[in-house]
């Protein structure tokens, strides 16, 4: 075993750009979630505000880890991107009462599609 990653484990440069952009969109949505959670926590919706803030923390951590792994082209980059996409998709369900829930679901689907799509063979 040489320790070199196999082609399926690493992320190509073109794929890394697309994944990186979607992870950046995810981080922007995390900032929006934090901004939405603050008035909910201050107002009468403390429980829901706590849920929104918790989701923002989980998505922020996973998206940050995945973005760093994609930038460094580590073997875990693809796996972390898949986990982040799945988490974004699943955790968008409690966010559906607010408009950002639909945006997070679309972002999660996009991240999974871009990450899982087969690489194009150079022609």
Number of domains: 1
Low-confidence stretches: 1-5
Chain-averaged pLDDT:
89
Number of helices: 4
Q: How many beta strands in the DSSP annotation?
A: 0
Can you characterise this structure?
- It is elongated and about 60 Å long.
- It has one domain (21-116).
- Helix 1 runs antiparallel to helix 4 (100-116), helix 2 (46-72) runs antiparallel to helix 3 (77-91) and helix 3 runs antiparallel to helix 4.
- The longest helix is centred in the first third of the chain and has 30 residues, at 13-42.
- It has helices spanning 13-42, 46-72, 77-91, 100-116.
- The protein has 4 helices and no strands.
- By secondary structure, it is mainly alpha-helical.
Give the structure's gist in a few sentences.
This protein has about 120 residues and is mostly helical. It has one domain (about 20-115). The protein is built from four helices and no strands.
Write the layout of secondary structure elements.
Elements: H1 13-42, H2 46-72, H3 77-91, H4 100-116
Helix pairs in contact: 1-2, 1-4, 2-3, 3-4
């Amino acid at each position: 075993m040489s320790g070199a990653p196999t082609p399926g484990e690493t992320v190509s440069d073109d794929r890394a750009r697309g994944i990186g952009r979607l992870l950046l969109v995810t981080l922007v949505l995390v900032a929006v979630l934090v901004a939405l959670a603050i008035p909910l926590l201050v107002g009468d919706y403390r429980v829901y505000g706590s849920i929104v803030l918790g989701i923002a923390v989980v998505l922020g951590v996973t998206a940050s880890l995945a973005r760093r792994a994609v930038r460094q082209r580590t073997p875990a980059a693809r796996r972390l991107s898949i986990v982040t996409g799945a988490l974004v998709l699943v955790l968008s369900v409690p966010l559906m009462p607010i408009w950002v829930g639909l945006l997070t679901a679309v972002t999660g689907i996009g991240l999974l599609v871009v990450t899982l799509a087969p690489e194009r063979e150079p022609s």
